[in-house]
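Email to the structure team, subject: DNA-directed RNA polymerase sigma-70 factor model.

Hi all, the expression group asked for a predicted structure before they design truncation constructs. Nothing fancy, just the C-alpha cells so they can compare against earlier work. One-line instruction: predict DNA-directed RNA polymerase sigma-70 factor, return C-alpha cells.
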Amino acid sequence: MTRSEEFQELRPLLFAIAYRILGSVSDAEDAVQESWLRYETSDAVPASPKAYLSAVVTRISIDVLRSARVRREAYVGRWFPEPLVSDPYEDPARAAELADSVSMAALLLLERLSPLERAVFVLREVFAFDFADVASAVGRSEDAVRQLAVRARRHMDEGRPRFEADRRERDELAARFFDAIRDGDVEALRELLAADVQLTADAGGKAPMWGRGIFGGANVARVLESTMPIFGQIGGTLEPRTINGQPGAILRDGEGRVLNTWSLDILDGRIQSIRAVLNPDKLGHLGPVADAWAVFQQGKDVRRPPV
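Reply from the structure team: attached below.
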C-alpha cells in the first residue's frame, strides 16, 4: 500500500481526532492536510502508520488549540463548536462513545481541559489508544499521561448530567418537538420543554440573536411560537438532522441556504437546551450560507402592519 493509500484510509480517523481536540471543522481539516504534508515528505517508515499519523495530527491540533484559546478569549458572545452533520469515522464497537464525545455538550466540557488533557482524553477515552501510543503522541511519559487522563476524566465526569436520555426516546422526543413547531401545536411544544430550558446562540457578532439567550420554558415557547410561523411565511425551512451526534436541525432561508443549526440536549423526557450556531463563519462547510441580517429584515417586514 502506498503512503497516499494509507493516508486516505486513515483520514476519517485523523479528522475525528482533530475535530474533538479543536471543535472546529475547518481547523480539523487543516490539521489533517498538514499531517499529510509532513507524512509525504518524511523519511520515516513507521511500523504503524495509524499510530504515527495519529500522533502527528494530535501534536498539530494541540498547537492550533493553544493559539485558538487566545482568540476565543476575545470572541464576541458565546462560543460554540462548529456544527458537524456527519462524523466520517465509524467504529461499531465504540459507536456510543463516538456519538457522545462529539456532542455540543461534550465539546463544551472539553473546553475546560488544558490542551494536553484534552488530547489525552480524546485519544484514550474516545478512541481507546493504549497509554504508550498516547504518551508518544503528546510527548509525555506514560505515568504523566495516566495522571493527565485521570484529571481529564474527573473534570468531564463532574460536568456531565447525572441521567442521560435513552437514544430511542431522545430521537422520538425530538421528532415530536419538530412536529409541534411545524404544526403550530403550542401545548405540545410547552410540554416538551424543561422548565429551565435554555435557548442560546453563537453569532460571533455577525448575525442577529437574542441577547444572552432565552431562559425558561414559557419564554422559549413564546419565542418559538412567535418566530417560527413568520420564518415559514418568508420561505424558511427547518430540516431535522443529526447535529454533533444529537438530534438537531438545519434552518434554511427561502433560497435553501444555511441560516443556522440547532442542537438539542434532551434529558429526563424534556428538552433541556437548544444551542443555535448562527455565525456564518462556522456554517460554510454545510453549503451556501444565508444572509442572516436580510432574513431578519424579511421577518420584520412581515410583522409590520400594512400602512
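The chain is about 55% helix and 15% strand. The mean pLDDT is 93. Ping us if the truncation boundaries need rechecking.
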